[in-house]
Amino acid sequence: MELVNKTEVSEFFLKGFSGYPALERLLFPLCSAMYLVTLLGNTAIVAVSVLDIRLHTPMYFFLGNLSILDICYTSTFVPLMLVHLVSAQKTISFIGCAIQMCLSLSTGSTECLLLAIMAYDRYLAICRPLRYPVLMSHRLCLLLAGAAWVLCLFKSVTETVIAMRLPFCGHYVVSHFTCEILAVLKLACGDTSVSEVFLLAGAILLLPVPLALICLSYTLILATILRVPSAAGRRKAFSTCSAHLAVVLLFYGTVIFMYMKPKSKEARISDEVFTVLYAVVTPMLNPVIYSLRNKEVKEAARKVWDRRQTSA
Question: The G-protein coupled receptors family 1 profile domain covers which part of the protein (predicted)?
Answer without folding.
Answer: 41-290
